What does this fold into?
Amino acid sequence: MKKLFKSTKLISTAFLLLIADVAMAQSEKAVVTALMGRAFVNRKVDSKPVMLEVKKGDTLFEFDEVFTEVGSQLSMRDSYDHDFHLSGSGYALILNRAIELKGGYLWVRSYSDRDEKFNVSTVNANTTYDNADFIISFDQDSGKTQLMSLKGQVEFANMVHSYLKYEVPAGKFSFISESYEDGSPRMPTPTGESTYRKVISLFDGVDKDFENKTKRQIVKKESPKADDRTPASATSPKTVSEPGSIIYVKESPKIIDDSNMIDDIGRKLASESMKKISAKKKFKPTYEKSSGVQVKVFGSHSNAGNRMPASVSNMKKKETMRGPASLVSPVQIKNDPFESSLLIEYKKQMRHSNEVNSLIKELKNYDQDYKESY
It folds into this structure.
C-alpha cells in the first residue's frame, strides 16, 4: 500500500511539473509588429529546442530566444504598452515582464504610466523602468553595457551588487564595465548630438516628432555652463546652437612633424663624418724612388758600395748571401770545415733579410695603429 501511494505521488508530481512547463512555454509575452530582414527564434517544442524563422504577426512566448541577422530589425510589443526594437546582430531572451539582452542594441519605448516596474538586464547590468524611453546595448567581446536615456528616468544598477546604481535622467547616458571602478555605473553624463545620431541611425522607421523633441532636449542639456561637465562624446571645441546660427571654429595649431627633419640631419652628419674619416691619409710605404740613404752591409762576403732596398724592382741580385749582423767580428774566421758548415746552416735558418724583417714590423705596427684609430 505504501509503494502504491509513493508511485501515485511521483506520477502526480511529474504531471503537475509537466503542466507547469507547458503553461510556462505557452505563456504569450509579445507580438512581432514589424520585421525588416530576417530573424529567428529558438523555442522548445515538445521539450526539444527548435529554430524557427520569425514573421510579422508571430507570437513570442516566455523563454523564447530571438536572433536578428546583420542589417535586420525586429519590432515587438508586449501587453503593457511597451515597444521593443531589436537592431541587427541582436540576441535577446523573452521573460515575464523582462527581457535579457545578450548582445546588440535594444530600444525600449513606453506609451503609458502604469506605476509598475519592468526590467531589461544584461550579464552585468539591470535597468528598472516604468514610463521611460531608452536605448541599451551590450558588447559580448568587452562585456560592456551602455544605457542612453531618451525620456523619463531609468534606474541603472550592477547586476550582482544592486546597491551600485544611478538614476539616469533623459538626455544622459552611463555604462557598466568590470574594468571601470569594479563594475560600478559611471556617473550619468550629458549625451552629445553626434552620439545620439549614431545610435539612432542603427534603427529604421524612427518617429520624426519623437526624434526632434528628443534632439531639442539633448541640445538644451548640451549648452555650456560653468557647472556642467563637458560631454564625454564631444569631439571638438564648438558648441551646439539653434539652427540658423553661425558657429566659429578656431583652427587647431599646425603640428610640424619633425621626424623627417631629424632623419635628414642625422644622415647629413653621418655622411660628413664618413667623408672626414675617408679624407684622412693612410700611411702606405712605397719604394718606387730611391731615398738616397746610404746603407752599409756587414758580413763575411759583403761588397763595397751602397746597397739599395730589397723591394726595389731594378735591384740586382746579390751574388752572395748576406750574413747575419750578430756574426760581425773583426777576427777572421778560420777556414775550418766544421765552422764553415755551421755558418752555412745558420744562414739557412734565416727566413728573411733584415730589410724584409723591418718592413714586416712596420706593416704590423701600421696594422695595429689602423685598428686602434679607426
